[in-house]
Amino acid sequence: MRTSKKIVFLAAGLTLAIFVLPVAVLAGGNAENGKKVVDTKKLGNCAACHVVPGMEFPGDVGPNLIEAMKNYSEADREMLRQRISDERKFNPDTIMPPFGTNKILTGQQIDDVVEYLLSLNNRK
Length: 124
Ligand code: HEC
Fold this sequence. Notes:
The protein is mainly α. The protein has a single domain, classed as Cytochrome Bc1 Complex, Chain D, domain 2 (Orthogonal Bundle). Helix content is 48%, strand content 0%. It has five helices and no strands. The longest helix has 24 residues. The site of heme C has 24 residues, from α3 and α4.
């Protein structure tokens, strides 16, 4: 391959790395926003039923999410999305609100919540 061609290939690769990678990262969730969604009564209000970090007097109708998240890893991201979007797919009798199906939360907010929940495992 001639040197000039190599440079063109290199430039194309760099362009991809600079413009495509950040978009891929942004497409995921934002853990900080996710925490707000989880803790806000009018949004997730997850502490009504779950133990979550930093919330006083949590409910115990659902499993402790700090403990439950130990069973989840990056590979379960999509499953976690599905559960928060509509837990009835996993348990038809659940009392957990179908946050996605009922449009309580947007897709972005659910991504943010998933990001936050997965981040709990990386805490020391
Ligand atoms: C009205 C009560 C209620 C609310 C509010 C609620 N959940 Fe749940 N959730 C449950 C129950 C009960 C379960 C147990 C599994 C089932 O019912 O299918 C559960 C299960 C889960 C699980 C699976 C846990 C495991 O053991 O694998 C996750 C994750 C979860 N909830 C996340 C959330 C998040 C995030 C929110 C807030 C956005 C939320 N829940 C709000 C009741 C609730």
